[in-house]
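Cross-posting from the chemistry board since nobody answered there.

I work mostly on the small-molecule side, so proteins are not my area. We synthesized NAP and want a rough idea of how it might sit in this target. Sequence and SMILES are below. Is it possible to get a predicted 3D structure of the two together?
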Amino acid sequence: MSKLTDKVAVVTGASKGIGAAIAKSLAAEGASVVVNYSSSKAGADKVVSEITTSGGKAIAVRGDVSKAAEAQGVIDAAIKKFGHLDILVNNSGVYEFLPIEAFTEEHYNKIFKVNVLGLLLTTQAAVKHLGEGASIINIGSVVSSLTPPNSAVYTGTKGAVDAITGVLAKELGPKKIRVNSINPGMVEAALVKPTTLPLSPPSSLPTIPSGSQASLSAPAAASANHFVPTARCDSDAAAGLPRHNTKGEL
Ligand SMILES: NC(=O)c1ccc[n+]([C@@H]2O[C@H](COP(=O)([O-])OP(=O)(O)OC[C@H]3O[C@@H](n4cnc5c(N)ncnc54)[C@H](OP(=O)(O)O)[C@@H]3O)[C@@H](O)[C@H]2O)c1
């Protein structure tokens, strides 16, 4: 039996990039997956089609996670279609790098709303459906430990993700719900090219190419190593003890 048979997962921001790779990895292990997107319907439909043609179960659900009613709608759609919820992956994220002299209130609000408020709202909507053995996985970033220049706002959101993960691991641990973060290194995605980033990846942080559909297999393969064990509801990882995977890879 596959590791996630009969489990239901919601992956936010799964229309492309890391989220798409995570959705496909979970589906390959037997989970039924809600592929959330905000604007990229075609991307989400493609991810669903790839999962279902491989024999898996998935639906695409639109919802801006930074709006309470829409985050709730994503979770409601999972319950309506699949009946229960076991795994929440808070992956939706936006990034833009600016020096301290150039950032604006608008830039701050945009990035914090998706990366932090969106995570909190989606978790709030999900938590009443999660039972013993459930798993919440927040996608942070290695930037919270590297603190590269010109990234105060984005890195601030990922520092918040680490802190929230620690709080919720303790808060939900007594209910046997595990809360962890995976903090990837640089993964080439739609908006990230190594040349545009304010940091050069140290040699210990290999860049993982994922710009094309074909090369998405690289993060998908990496996520199979790090991600599925974290999501497994029979994992022996203790509830209440967050793991921040900061190896620099997904
Ligand atoms: N790429 C990297 O090097 C890297 C490294 C470390 C951590 N991360 C983190 O990994 C996560 C995914 O990054 P990525 O590089 O794969 O990004 P990406 O390719 O740009 O994908 C971002 C995803 O987030 C979704 N999204 C954006 N705003 C949203 C909203 N308001 N509501 C719901 N979904 C929304 C997008 O959906 P639509 O297209 O439909 O809007 C898309 O599916 C982010 O949290 C990022 O911070 C990335």
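Reply from a structural biologist on the board:
Welcome over. Reading the output above for you: Residues 200-225, 246-250 have pLDDT under 50 and may be disordered. The pocket of NAP is lined by residues 12-19, 36-40, 64-66, 91-95, 114, 118, 139, 141, 184, 186-187, 189-192 (CB under 6 Å). Happy to explain the token format if needed.
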